[in-house]
Backbone:
């Protein structure tokens, strides 16, 4: 837990030196994944299953691209952080997980991204809502407010699609299997790996297993209610986890 | 079973400012209350509404029908 007695940090120079690189890496990966997710949602603006669904996808796309923009703004003041902007975004050097690097191809796959990666990124930002580092705290609170509607959207569509029949459920289970390892590893190993120092400094209130447990405690019952089987709880592939890029190494 | 594209309709009402009447601003089709609220918020976002409500169209009672029923009951 952040210790209020230690005071608030209003500028990067107030952060412990060892926090700078892990914080920059986390912000880049959060923002790059949000940017890619926004582009993927936007591909459904005019082709959702209903007009209303298309409008909702458009709104979520605008939210995600906006979140990426405000998070990139954090990098400008962090020393030695990479510079990013939504105008010069390049998929080639983006630190994105594989699931959002190609079009979803179907609405059920979009909903799987909505209930997994979208929620996982939100779960990480929730750990910054009481951050001692004020520039992050202000941005995280604003983002989390908008994310409430993404959660309702994902949950409602998960239930609706789960009731569509075994073919749709099988497609969703295949998508879950594809997005699962990156998503569940995203919180970091054990106490958070490189994120642990951000917890110690009060920049985040938790990382690693604590956030993963919180995330799965929400997702697993939601999948059950929709008649979907969560991928097996086999040991997570930490040997392939790239802490710098926050994704699994491929190949 | 309800199919996608054949969802119930919700009427959307909103109030722009304190003291102003609740106005009908449109409608959305959604499979349930939660998604109806998400859709209404997204679609009718042209103003900063003070408050907004969705009402299942089936919950709206036509006043003409009520009068007919009352007249019939006393006939």
Residues:
């Amino acid at each position: 837990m952040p210790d209020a007695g230690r005071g608030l940090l209003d500028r990067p120079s107030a952060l412990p030196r060892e926090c700078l690189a892990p914080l920059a890496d986390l912000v880049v990966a959060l923002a790059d994944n949000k940017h890619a997710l926004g582009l993927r949602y936007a591909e459904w603006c005019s082709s959702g299953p209903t007009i209303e669904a298309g409008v909702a996808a458009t709104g979520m796309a605008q939210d995600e691209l906006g979140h990426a923009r405000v998070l990139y703004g954090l990098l400008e003041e962090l020393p030695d952080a990479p510079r990013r902007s939504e105008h010069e975004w390049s998929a080639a050097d983006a630190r994105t997980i594989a699931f959002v690097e190609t079009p979803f191809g179907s609405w059920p796959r979009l909903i799987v991204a909505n209930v997994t990666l979208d929620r996982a990124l939100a779960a990480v930002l929730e750990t910054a809502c009481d951050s001692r580092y004020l520039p992050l705290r202000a941005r995280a609170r604003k983002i989390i407010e908008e994310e409430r509607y993404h959660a309702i959207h994902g949950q409602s569509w998960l239930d609706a699609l789960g009731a569509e029949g075994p073919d749709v459920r099988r497609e969703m289970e295949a998508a879950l299997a594809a997005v699962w390892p990156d998503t569940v590893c995203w919180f970091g190993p054990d106490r958070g790996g490189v994120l642990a120092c951000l917890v110690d400094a009060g920049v985040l209130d938790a990382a690693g297993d604590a956030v993963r447990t919180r995330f799965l405690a929400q997702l697993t019952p939601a999948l059950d209610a929709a008649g979907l089987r969560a991928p097996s709880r086999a040991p997570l592939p930490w040997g392939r986890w790239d802490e710098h890029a926050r994704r699994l190494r491929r190949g | 079973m309800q199919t996608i594209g054949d969802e119930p309709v919700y009427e959307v009402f909103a109030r722009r400012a304190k003291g102003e009447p609740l106005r009908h601003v449109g409608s959305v089709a959604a499979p349930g209350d939660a998604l109806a609220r998400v859709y209404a918020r997204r679609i009718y976002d042209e103003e900063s509404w003070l408050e907004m409500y969705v009402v299942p169209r089936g919950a709206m009672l036509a006043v003409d029908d009520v009068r007919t029923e009352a007249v019939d009951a006393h006939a």
Chain B has one domain: 9-74.
